[in-house]
Design goal:
16-stranded antiparallel β-sheet; mainly beta
Length: 295
Amino acid sequence: MAVVAKGLRPAGLAGVVLLVTLTACGGGGGGKTKSAAARSTSTTEDRTATSTAAGAASTAAGGVTSTTAKARTPAPAKVNGAPAAAYHPPAGAKPATPPAPGTYHYDTTGSVSFGAGSTSLPPVTTLTVDPPAGASQHSTRDLRDAKGNGSVSETTLQFQPQGVLLEELKVTTNVSGYKDVEDFRPPSPALIFPTGAHPGDHLEFDVSGSGTTVHVVIDVVRTERLVIGGQAVDTIVVHENATFSGHITGSTQGDNWVSPQYDLIVKEHSVTDASSGLAKAHSDQTSTLQKLTPG
């Protein structure tokens, strides 16, 4: 729904939602787009109509009617197999702090395919970080193109002594006038990057919402030095695997290069395969931060 600090959002969530929304409305693939008068503000009604139509088409063609997989019950977050709520950072470890507010720009490559059609992602995308409100901070990742088509993911994180916790991920997708909103939350704020994390650490947590449950597995893989905007920066490489059940099914694999110094994801890559009913889609995205400061 893709996840250390500000960039530490499960990036795959947004990718899957965008993919399924595109396929459901035929975005760019030659399918019909609902007129403004016919569009419903309820995404539930849109999904029901799409699923019913897809099932009817399959039955008429002699196929098997599609059914939606049951969403799993969200489970509490874990760190290295133990409850995340019981995690204690190693002595002397420095907690992450909210990154500097402002707008960051990412050079972006990749595409989204749906059915027989595909579309390229914008060459430059943005991350807008709001000023912190107490221990929480809200940010907005904008992957829309010049026509306003694409997704906007809003992430709210908590910066606590034990690490960075996810409160909410809200994804809004617009394609040719069709709007879909998915709102994902863990049962309680989930620890997604512990203070003092090092290669070998393993985290798991669930988020759910809008008829979908996502099981996210995060592994801290290695350290690596990158050059961002002409400046060398040390990063921690985090691998993410997200599995979807319910309204959306499928999975995403992703890697995030996180700078503990700047509390930002400086590079990200994700590959997603997802479906909703009979609609199937695929995406492959890579984004690299242009510079380490906003503006």
